## 1
Amino acid sequence: MSNTRRKFIQESLLASMAVSLGTNIVYGKNIPFDLQLLGLEDSTSDQFPGKSSLMTVLNDRPINMETPAHLLKDALTPNDLFFVRNNGLVPKNIDIDNWTLTISGESARKTKTYTLKELKSKFENVNYNLTLECGGNGRKEFSPPAKGNQWSTGAVGCAKWTGVRLRDVLKDVGIKSNAVYVAYYGADIHLSGAADKDPISRGVPIKKANEEESMIAWAMNDEDLPLLNGYPLRLVFGGYPASCSGKWLNKILIRDRVHDGQKMNGSAYRIPCKPVSPGATVEDEDMCIIENMPVKSLITFPKTGATIQLSQSLPISGHAWTSSKEIVKVEYSIDFGIQWQESTLSKSANKYAWQNFEAKVKFPQTGYYEVWAKATDSDGNVQAMLLPGWNPKGYLNNACHRIAVKVL
Amino acid sequence: MNNHNYDTASLWRMLTLLIHVLLFLVIVSFMYLILEDHIVSFLNKPKLSVEQLDDIAANRAKGRSQVKNDKWDLVENGIHLRTGLKADENLQLIIGACTSCHSAKIITQNRASREGWKSMIVWMQETQGLVDLGDKESIVLDYLAKNYAPQEMGRRKNLDLAEIEWYILNLDEIEE
């Protein structure tokens, strides 16, 4: 019997035992085989541990959930409201005492393994507020439609992350001068259950890995990472598609070439290297890896559908983010983009933190309105009003957010 | 005396251990009986047919679903409740071929032409270990292209007014 098969049977038995006994596996520790992570979802556990029931579930195998816009109103997104984009099955029975991170690869001077404790004590601990956004956030609006989870606006959040700088750890291992890419592997399991397949293994160019704000994090808003967001360890890269920020992190490779792991190739997290017409067929070799995410904003108050009196003025607020240095302006329009007013904008806590905007809006007469918001960043990039460049997989939709308001 | 006490204690310890081991063996045997089908179907994985995929999908769903057996394939308003798929010809074949690895939700939220659905099947075969569907493929494609075809949305759709829940915003409560 092959290892994989034996492992599967062991896992099935243990999982079923846990179900039938209605408790944790009491004798699990005594079972005389090398216990692997349980890859099979069962029906007894809370299906979405640590997540609010107010989240919108797009998919349950793998788990994908987004946050309705009005629930993103906090300056820092609470852990139970932070979106989830999983590619595989969530690892189970995580043992943090024995969790290790191994760093190796063609361009690593040596192979080194750290326990969580060593990471925490050996390197400077840092905090950054970093915005994570799924590359496919807004996919739902593309026409012709793009394949994949149909995210609307809520695959984004900004949290305070605690951890160490990736560059400090890479330096400790030693980076050869021919390093090109830093790649991750995690403990999540391929949907098919196959142990020899990775659900996802992506990464970033070495330059991005060496940025000050690029982190290996173990805490989110001063608590352990939620299980669905990568407990106990993950990467966090602000300004890049969130798929670069590997979860359940246990292995990093310093590579001498662009990483070729799962979802690095084909059309995954890539857009046409040259602009194409909507619906065009694009060959894989004409697709380029997405790096920086575009400037974007979201109106988080009020919830769409607000009805007010003409005599009242409407407070609006939300967030804006960019992969450039900072947001310099957020404007809003109540007449479908003819006139724009500037809102009050907060400073960013650090690069890649989202910034808050607010304004008080007076309406000239009763009727149906839409409030639109558009942000401008320090590189002069502005959000689109229509859908930006169509691409086969529906990435990078930064068209302005719109909410509906009735004035009586 | 001390030696005697020590022996009793260690006897007890061995007895307890023996009970634990026996209990474990009983549970394992019991679970094996229940799980035999899963295991057999897993061992056959390299040679899976569409029908076997169907069995796996059904078995997995049974373990995950609270739906009672008599409501197993209930259809309401043209929707197969357990999966959310549109009820149409060959639905059982679709459930079998398409939901053994992933949720039906990834189907119901997507729209594509026949060619678009075909390219997704090819992608799953090339990268995700999906088997050759043989002569069932055209049946699957017919179902998907008919029931989950794209709609023209233009360069940007109007806000979906039917979906908006209008409410009176109480501004007094939020005055700072």
## 2
Amino acid sequence: MRRSMLFLPGNSPNILLNADFLGSDAIILDLEDAVAPTEKDSARILVRNAITSLGYTREVIVRINPVESPYWQKDLQQIIKVKPDMIMPTKVSCAQDVKIVSDYIGQMEEEYGIPAGTVKMIPLIETALGVENAYEIASADPRVTAIFLGGEDFTADLRCKRTKGGNEIFYARSRMVVAARAAGVDVYDTPWTDVEDYEGLVEDAKFAKSLGFTGKSSISPRHIPFINEVFSPTEEEIQYAKDVFECIEKAKAEGKGVVSLRGKMIDAPIVARARQVLEAAEAIKGGR
Amino acid sequence: MIKQKATAGTLESSDIFVEIAPAEAGAGISLDLTSVVYQQFGPEIEAVIYDTLKELGVADAALTVKDRGAVDCTIRARIETAVCRGKGEE
């Protein structure tokens, strides 16, 4: 289960050493914005070695440079051979952007004897065109198992100010969630960028969860416990989900066709939600 | 073959700074290593450096290396980066 994802600069040995101990469900080793153009070569070699040698237990995502840059193919040449869980292509604006990267990942998989389709993708959507094309991006390729909203670049593209209230990204958030769910993939929210404002972070994460986001990313390890808490099912939700299944079993034993719990009929969406809650609870095994 | 002087890495904690320069054919490897953990791990760090150079096919070069407590995968990464840059591959 992936509730939180933590961005970490790819050219910092000290941070890469500690990446597994910062509490996030996934780590995003960044070769893009966190790495100066003069150090791209150095970062991709370091990240490659870190993945090979440090035995990360968290899900490993590598954020590569955009397809318009001269770096993305070199990133994949170094990184695919060590089989990260996912590649995060950046500035993805259409299905073609996904296909180009996926095809190249496929070539690298073949070259290194890795079964085709092993490495998944989580496209970073951070342009107005990308948001408009969110569904075609989410359903462009079987490698895509999630999409991700990058709020900072997106608002720059909209030519508006990024605010804590987030009204300017409300439409993009909603559209991304609908697109992802329609395509059957997960969807992740943009980081909360005020490192010291935990109250704002929790409010923002709760709002993202209420819209349907699977989880949220962060640029600060200190945000991770809050994000994990918000995106974990509560004890009350877990108990209710258990009650739903108990109730169904009981009704079956009694030969009843229609079941109700606490005065409310249990229908297919309620069962589906209960199943999701129990699966999430099982995945985190009480961890927060 | 190392064609030009090149550097890689930083002097930050857990990193290692590598400077590599061309050497005459047959000169072998000359290594000037300083490390904050030289007393404890000097020979091990040197072994990793020599091993990485061998893997990369570098027989002749002059290296100045300043270690700040880097682990093996970082040492290997910074040596490889310096060699690639020294060969003019980047």
